Amino acid sequence: MDVNDDLEKLIENLPFFLQDQVNQHEFKDQLIEIVLDLGRRPEARFIMGPEYLSQKTISWQDLDYMTKRLSKFSNENRAGIERTLHRISCIRNRQFLINGLTCRVGRAVFGTISVIRDLLESEKSILILGKPGVGKTTIIREIARVLADEMEKRVIIIDTSNEIAGDSDIPHSGIGRARRMQVAKTELQHQIMIEAIENHMPQVIVIDEIGTELEVLAARTIAEKGVQLVGTTHGNCLENLIKNPPLADLIGGIQYVTLSDDEAKRRGTQKSILERKAYPAFEIIIEINDQNSWTIHENVKNSVDLFLRGHFGIGQVRKFSLTEKVKIKCHNYHNSLTTSSNTLNNVNTLPIKNWSTINTSKNLKSVEFRQQKLIIYPYSLSNNLLKEVLLKMGFNFILTNEIKKANLIIGLRKHLKQNYRLITLAKQKNIPIYSVNQVSVYQITKFIQFLNS
């Protein structure tokens, strides 16, 4: 994981008596922000907690020295430093004079989103939830770079506060080839979101801090036009979003529905219940619990429906560190709305007669993966993707275009369900069929691990 923080450019704009204190601090690399308030001692906030930097208190001259070296403060009382990601926010008194500064360190961190790369490859819209300061902006900056540079998508960033791509007219290198549209006033963000669609033909739009009903409506409009969205909003978890009326439309909106007596009895509920109004604008939600632990809802529609019926459960918890591999833990929903009998590996099996006995000794067509060569017929899946996963896992395999020669069929579930001819032929030849929900390295890897377990 690489970090580019340009910390020296922030330090050189501090009052002189603070520059040496910050430069010589043993935890300088873990600095989050510096707080300068009139008449108080300067305070540095690190990951492990705050501490004072000096016995000297901040004077008007210190604040004036620093503000003159920054760009002009916006209507939201924010300013920046040219060619960096640092954000300086000010506090004003009743005469509109600046009597406090919060200097937040902006870092471009490369490699943070490896834990969710499979979600990016799914081309679904992603919403990131988390409380202020947890790193949402850093994450979507890296997502924008990966989508633009590595996946070669046309990416446009709606940068309202200039936190994603920096304060200068030339965007920070942390966003890669992605393009940035600046927003003159915060209340115009929703207009710029629509303008980006109409004028610049993006495949992906990245938005930081969706907060108003107009911005929610713009996000829904963009989603309905088939453009992938990556956005952030404040909130600790999906439950906060469901219970927040202005933002609830991001996940389909909530409404009261009155059931008939028979239906209420069948469901075992009251006649008036809460239900989702429409399809979610964001299909995947990521809750940032802390920097190294994220909760993933890969099917927002199901998660919302389950919550409204009182059967809400966590989809996945992904943990990672610099020294260990990514760890993914999943939990079953225990509800009829789930689409998979095995949520742990997110692999679905079609209703083929012999699939459940494939690993038993009674089945003459059973496949011993470590001893026998896999002959796979891929349906609606990339041959290159399958080759990449199987080679990494050390399997002896052949990909074939002839169903009769295959001893295993793997395909995308939504396409397999529609091909009755393939299902019938597979039954006749006693060839097991397996399906995955999404085309991604993660899905295929978990599928192979499932079969080999």
Question: Which labels suit this protein?
Answer:
27% helix, Spore_III_AA_AAA+_ATPase, Beta-Lactamase, Rossmann fold, 14 helices, 3 domains, 453 residues, chloroplast, alpha/beta, plastid, nine-stranded mixed beta sheet, six-stranded antiparallel beta sheet
The largest beta-sheet arranges its strands as 11-10-12-13-9-16-17-18-19
SS content category: alpha/beta
Low-confidence stretches: 332-371
Mean pLDDT: 82
Indicate the percent of residues in helices.
25-40%
State the domain count.
3
Number of strands: 24
CATH homologous superfamily label of the largest domain: P-loop containing nucleotide triphosphate hydrolases
> How many H/I helical runs?
14
InterPro entries: AAA+_ATPase, P-loop_NTPase, PTPase_dom, Spore_III_AA_AAA+_ATPase
GO molecular function, one term: ATP binding
Pfam families: PTPase (PF25516), Spore_III_AA (PF19568)
Keywords: ATP-binding, Chloroplast, Nucleotide-binding, Plastid
Written account of the structure:
There is one protein chain. The chain is globular, with a radius of gyration of 26 Å. Strand 6 and strand 7 form a beta hairpin. The strands form five sheets. Strands 11-10-12-13-9-16-17-18-19 form a nine-stranded mixed β-sheet, with helices on both faces. It has a six-stranded antiparallel β-sheet with strand order 4-3-2-7-6-5, covered by helices on one side. With 453 residues, it is α/β, with parallel strands linked by helices. It has helices at residues 7-11, 16-23, 60-67, 117-121, 136-150, 189-200, 213-224, 238-242, 261-267, 300-308, 383-392, 413-416, 420-429, 441-452, and strands at 2-4, 31-37, 43-46, 49-52, 78-80, 87-92, 98-104, 108-110, 126-130, 155-159, 179-182, 204-207, 228-234, 254-258, 272-276, 284-290, 293-297, 316-319, 327-330, 347-348, 374-379, 397-399, 408-412, 433-436. The two termini are 32 Å apart. The protein has 14 helices and 24 strands.
